[in-house]
């Protein structure tokens, strides 16, 4: 579904991504783990052209895009086939919950208002927020905002959904609800790439776990391989707290 | 010399006939300035090559020039040069055909454009970066981002500052009398020149400007209250 080859990105003198390769199969859930500053978020943003990578190729479905050479049109086409869920939700502040979900449908998919409304209502129902459809983001709790953010991403019917620490800004109770929703979406067959610190979620839901540090992929494999049969010392150290829980 | 209320009221009546001219100059300058200012602010926001740094210098320079100088400069330049240009372009329009109001409006628009561009720049800065990320992530074009996300959020933030700008423009329009436009200020001065009652005339003028400012401020407040809920949302 998505094949990423040799992504490099530098900010000024600092090289943040030093050649990342990743394969994501259709319906696969890939979780990126790693310490802060390891480049996970930058990598995700490069996959959606929110940052322009300095080098690298993305193959998404049939189309291949060279990251540093992509034209405006190529970028838009790519962005309309991927969706992103943000740590701080990033809902449009001037739009209601329902309108936030309708926005990509009307603006980028050129659907009629009626069609967009029907999709939005179905998605609101799926994320359990039908009764909040006319609320503005500032009137919703963090967990509710994130569910709307997820619904907005789903509305695009994207080939891949990218999640940038979707639960980091939520309180523990809301984290549970949001992870449950993510699990549902994963089980429904969506292709997902997640950056998260929720080890348990990664262990239980991911098909593939990728451990990144310092702009490199240190280790990747199935959750069993990475968590239980860890090869690299660095990965072991990072996962230590969780793996002792697992063992105990 | 005592202050005579009846003469002041007489001056008030005469001057008030020209409120239309004053408002016409201020409002036209506001509209032209807001459009030009928006374009300047957008060029600077998107850091368009060459234009953005050039405009930054122009804005910085013009911010420091008094409007009265701009009015006089425009007057002098057009008085000296316009007929020569018009002739070379084979226009039939000549400088003497100009209504001087347009010289004043041009100068006020310049002031208004510079101020508006700074108002928009501030309002744009208040729109969170995540809003742009979200818009791009769903594949919106720059024009769509501006129309559907940036402007709807920046507008409520900038409204109070635009009401201030309009008040400034109304007051600055009094300078149009320098190039022989008859507005509220000039009309009152003309009556005073006939009876040497300058104090009464100036008080009358002050009252008119004060009332206009009051109406603008109240109007803006009403609009603001209507948008207050939206304003709060955008601020969060």
Automatic annotation (TrEMBL), chain A:
Q: Which InterPro entries match?
A: AAA+_ATPase (IPR003593), ABC_ATPase_HisP-typ (IPR030679), ABC_transporter-like_ATP-bd (IPR003439), ABC_transporter-like_CS (IPR017871), MetN_ABC_transporter-like (IPR050086), P-loop_NTPase (IPR027417)
Question: What coarse category fits the chief subcellular location reported for this protein?
Answer: membrane
Q: How does it sit in the membrane?
A: Peripheral membrane protein
Q: Which Pfam families match?
A: ABC_tran
For whether the record's keyword set contains Nucleotide-binding, the answer is: yes
The GO terms this record gives for MF are:
ABC-type amino acid transporter activity; ATP binding; ATP hydrolysis activity
Query: Which PROSITE patterns does the protein's record reference?
Result: ABC_TRANSPORTER_1, ABC_TRANSPORTER_2
Entry's localization field: Cell membrane
Q: This protein's superkingdom?
A: Bacteria
What GO cellular component is one of the record's annotations? plasma membrane
* Protein name per the record: Amino acid ABC transporter ATP-binding protein
Question: Whose protein is this, by species?
Answer: Enterococcus casseliflavus (Enterococcus flavescens)
